[in-house]
UniProtKB/TrEMBL annotation:
Identification of the protein by name: TRI46 protein
Amino acid composition bias (Low complexity), ranges on this chain: 52-67
Pfam families reported for this sequence: zf-B_box, zf-C3HC4
Keywords linked to the UniProt accession: Coiled coil, Cytoplasm, Cytoskeleton, Metal-binding, Repeat, Zinc, Zinc-finger
GO cellular component term of the entry, any: cytoskeleton
Gene3D superfamilies on file: 4.10.830.40, Classic Zinc Finger, Zinc/RING finger domain, C3HC4 (zinc finger)
Primary location: cytoplasm
Biological processes per GO annotation: anterograde synaptic vesicle transport; axonogenesis; microtubule bundle formation; neuron migration
Listed GO MF terms: zinc ion binding
Subcellular location, record wording: Cytoplasm, Cytoskeleton
Length: 282
């Protein structure tokens, strides 16, 4: 039991304190959830720079450089000029077309150091698929070793066989059918493995069945990690979903504020027009 607890501690993200979800490997060898990393950068004033752009130079020192990133060829001078002129990788604090592009610094919550991510920011990091598989296997082991009981059975309770994210509950087969009657809206609920901790169901990519993480401004479509590396999105402007969501939310908030502030004026004009119509009819 103690060894399992120690293992679980190693599989917890230092930011959200939950098990890793789509972990990214930092140059300092620590890991962090993709969404958590995006939130940390946003909190430090870094809007996402274009992840499709090539880095203009390798990382400053071998200790902060990703091994795979270090093997990439440095772009030719004419390629570099085109990238700078087109404004790739711009973010607050950096002037478009600067001679010495700034790099994104990420404060690692594990080692408390500022890690250099290069000009591409999170776009230069790689998803730690090995750690992701370990987390998934650990979750399956926990589900098998700790039986989850149906929350709706009358005593004696039966073991749960299905979960429902929408209902945030676990059911045995009979109770699932009872609480999701055929022909009702609840019948559309998709069964999941039983669990004690229901997390909100994220948007899924219809093509790759992966969770949506990015938004392509060029195509105006949401996409997952696999969509991002496809050739169809080469040179497209791609941002994290969180950045796109916040930008759209601010735009809608301003629009709503304008509509609400103009509501009284519009109502007055409508009343005046109605009076004019009545007067004209008379």
């Amino acid at each position: 039991q103690t060894s399992m607890k120690n293992m679980e501690r190693e599989l917890v993200c230092p930011v959200c304190k939950e098990m890793y979800k789509q972990p990214l490997a930092l140059p300092c060898t620590h890991n962090v959830c993709h969404v958590c990393a995006s939130e940390v950068l946003l909190q430090h004033g870094h809007l996402c720079c274009d992840p499709t752009s090539e880095p203009t130079s390798p990382a400053a020192t071998p200790s902060t450089r990703s091994p795979r990133l270090g093997r990439r060829a440095v772009p030719k001078p004419d390629r570099l000029d085109r990238l700078l002129k087109s404004g790739f990788g711009t973010y607050p604090g950096r002037k478009r077309g600067a001679v010495h592009p700034q790099t994104v610094s990420f404060p690692c919550p594990a080692c408390q150091r500022d890690v250099d991510l290069g000009e591409r920011g999170l776009g230069s990091l790689f998803r730690n698929l090995t750690l992701e598989r370990v987390v998934e296997r650990y979750r399956q082991t926990i589900n098998i070793s700790a039986a989850i009981m149906c929350q709706f059975c009358k005593p004696p309770q039966l073991e749960a066989t299905k979960g429902c994210t929408e209902c945030k509950s676990s059911f045995c087969n009979e109770c699932f059918k009872l609480y999701h009657p055929w022909g009702t809206q609840k019948a559309q609920h998709e069964p999941t493995p039983p669990t004690l901790t229901f997390r909100p169901k994220g948007l899924m990519c219809p093509e790759h069945k992966e969770e949506v993480t990015h938004y392509c401004k060029t195509c105006q479509r949401l996409g997952c990690q696999l969509c991002r590396v496809r050739r169809t999105h080469t040179s497209h402007k791609i941002t994290p979903v969180l950045s796109a969501y916040q930008a759209l939310r601010e735009k809608l908030t301003k629009s709503l504020a304008y509509i609400l502030s103009s509501q009284d004026t519009v109502q007055t004009q409508i009343a005046e027009l109605e009076e004019t119509v009545k007067h004209t009819e008379v």
